[in-house]
Fold this sequence. Notes:
The protein has 467 residues and is α/β, with parallel strands linked by helices. It has helices at 59-67, 106-110, 120-128, 151-167, 181-191, 193-199, 214-223, 239-246, 250-253, 294-301, 320-334, 391-395, 418-428; strands at residues 14-15, 28-31, 39-43, 49-53, 69-72, 77-80, 85-88, 137-140, 173-178, 200-206, 269-276, 282-289, 306-309, 312-315, 343-350, 352-360, 379-385, 403-408, 437-438, 458-460. The chain has one domain (2-460): Alpha/Beta hydrolase fold, catalytic domain (Rossmann fold). It is built from 13 helices and 20 strands. Strand 5 and strand 6 form a beta hairpin. Helix 5 packs across helix 6 (193-199).
Amino acid sequence: MLGDFCLFPFLRRRRSEPEDGGTDLDPVLLISGIGGSILHSKNKKFGYEVRVWVRILLADLEFKRKLWSIYNPKTGYTEPLDDGTEIVVPDDDYGLYAIDILDPSVWAKLFRFSDVYQFHDMIDMLIGCGYKKGSTLFGHGYDFRQSNRIDKAMDGLKAKLETVYKASGGRKVNIISHSMGGLLVSCFLSLHNDVFEKYVTKWICIACPFQGAPGCINDSLLTGLQFVDGLQSYFFVSRWTMHQLLVECPSIYEMLSNPGFKWKQHPLIQVWRKQSEGKADSSVQLESYGPSDCISLFQEALRHNELNYGGKSVALPFDLNILEWAFETREVLNRAQLPNGVSFYNIYGTSLDTPFDICYGSETSPIEDLSEVCHTLPEYSYVDGDGTVPIESAKADGFAAAERVGVAADHRGLLCEKAVFQLIRKWLGVTEKSVNHAKASRVMDEFSTEGCSISSVWLMDHIRPEG
Length: 467
């Protein structure tokens, strides 16, 4: 693949790994969130693979051809419309390759697309603290389209924990999860509590939407999601192309606002609606939908949603089968309990305007048919958070946390924020040992913190008492 060939050696420099292999350290397993893993499309007949997420060149075209999918209620899995392929996650570099730089091509590095740099800086920091890939440092990417509790997801995480445990000589694992990766871990904790207790000693959770990410997820189901902004967006998957995948992803439904959570104020979807009483008479009203009654809005707005694939129309309405599955996932999450002897730490983002309520249309330009919502950019009302997950949701983990700490950074920026690194080193009980650099990885960049620095001001929250 082009992404594996480097014309410029300076783009492949990273801290050298310790000669002793960090054998005195408990191993670390990094777990990504939604959109945080490389995905390949694998041809079932010939076995060759093509990276479809993330890619810069031909991004929108390849996404439509290989990643557009439809939910199969008989299996519970979201399956590619191209039935000659399957979606796989590369496990190279002990699982780190898939969560490092999401487009490892020369072009992404040359143009410095910082938004595709996922765990890159954190991997670099941990290597500098003495961790060694394959013995004390591992990664875990997964097919983030699927449910967080689906069998393949649970079996994959179980197998990875066993691998890490054995490779480190029987030392228990420190998990560091980001975003939806925290929900994946929570589902595993709920469904396989004994396995979790056997293999895990600490879990550091970063920016997890424990009770949902109302503004972002509601709008994602209605109008799509733009992962990058500005000039970079022209090289990336379009908002609407992404939308047509997300409406078929159980993982997205599982991040809807938890209707059973006691929000300070329930998140709303509002629509300025034109009420036609006759040919001459009409009025405008502001309709409001809470976490429980927004389902009718999703159904009505998406009733005509479809895409064209291979010359055929494929209907993609709001899927009640996925919603039912997501409700069951919420019950699984609510049952999660931290085993004795496992320490839990929660880092959440602060100081960013974070979408909470969303409003479509206006009093002077109202929506007449609710299907128009899907082609209307909303106005947001904001709360404090990381720009994606509200503080209120990220802090509501339901566990007896050793510490909860707020860091002033955005959702992805938390992965390369110095204050976060300081906390991780503190909780792992390690310090940086080396600042030397050497060629040591498939995916590298000497400018690892450029474009990632955000204010390192961080606010200590109170320690939640156990029980």
